[in-house]
């Protein structure tokens, strides 16, 4: 026989004054420091077991010229090339050995180098992050071997039709700067040299154009890391021409059954009152997450387009802000035979809202 016993814990009356048990320390306040050389340091200590640290640099594609288009794209792929302090092999295996990750991505205005790891290994991964951002060598043979990857990276990205639409949208909207593509033009693949990479880094990777940001790390530790950035070039670096909005139209025929279309006008620059207003208007028109297999009936754009067609479609407001300009409008996806009526209906809905067909309740919900 097996004998089972059950011991019931005695009931303990909860005290109204009992303190809550804190399983983890409270998140500290955001700390920001600006060094004399212009480098900005920001940290948020949340006592997470994982730390994330990023170097943000004003070095996007808008800072390219007609003679070095695609440099930022190649630089984005060159994060694991040999540096003055570590080989390509050491960077890759060193980060993998501690379960960390290094990622690089860029927009038209900024390039971001980001590492993530357990907080006990911050010093280890930061060594590689510093090497990648402050001491690249760009050996000619490594740069040459890397360039075919531009085609692969571009082909993978352009499998998403929205990437091509947004690239063409900026090319049509702007005359310079923001018109530069995020992806290397086909005619420059294989022609970008290590000297061009060095020149781009020298002119853009300067202290006043950088910010070192950490989450799950002490501010004092991050300031110690920042000391290694003191040997980089100081100053504001190269200046970019102000983006000039001109408007225009680009149509690309590809024979697909679906039509992707974006119609925009100039929006607001980052930090401006217009940018805030356009952000609210974007959510008034419809920019929130969609419910799977839902009709998105709360979106004003969807409501307007649904009255014009019974065929499947998608319509959402589009809003992007840059340091000196912005774009605002709408993006639609529809079947080719119905593209005209969908675009026209979305445009009419924008006009109706511009003429005052929104309520205070709509604005409150959008905020």
3D structure, described in words:
The strands form 2 sheets. Strands 1-2-6-3-5-4 form a 6-stranded mixed sheet, covered by helices on one side. Strands 7-9-8 form a 3-stranded antiparallel sheet, sandwiched between helices. The mean pLDDT is 88. It contains 12 helices and 9 strands. Helix 9 (273-285) crosses helix 12 (360-366). The chain has 2 domains: 31-231, Metalloenzyme, LuxS/M16 peptidase-like (Cytochrome Bc1 Complex, Chain A, domain 1); 258-366, Cytochrome Bc1 Complex, Chain A, domain 1 (2-Layer Sandwich). The longest helix has 16 residues, at 339-354. With 367 residues, it is of the alpha+beta class.
Structure characteristics:
three-stranded antiparallel beta sheet; Peptidase_M16_C; metal ion binding; 367 residues; QCR2 protein; alpha+beta; six-stranded mixed beta sheet; MPP/UQCRC_Complex; 12 helices; 2 domains; Cytochrome Bc1 Complex, Chain A, domain 1; 33% helix
What's the CATH superfamily of the largest domain, by name?
Metalloenzyme, LuxS/M16 peptidase-like
Instruction: Report how far apart the termini are.
Output: 68 Å
Number of strands: 9
Rg, alpha carbons = 26 Å
Examine the secondary-structure arrangement and name the CATH architecture of the largest domain: 2-Layer Sandwich
If you average the pLDDT, what whole number results? 88
Q: So what's the overall shape? A: globular
Task: State the CATH class of the largest domain.
Answer: Alpha Beta
Order of helices and strands: EEEHHEEHHHHHEHEHHEEHH
Which spans have pLDDT < 50 for at least 5 consecutive residues?
none
Strand order of the largest sheet: 1-2-6-3-5-4
**How is the CATH topology of the largest domain named?**
Cytochrome Bc1 Complex, Chain A, domain 1
**Approximate strand percentage:** 15-25%
| Tally of helical runs | 12
Helicity range:
25-40%
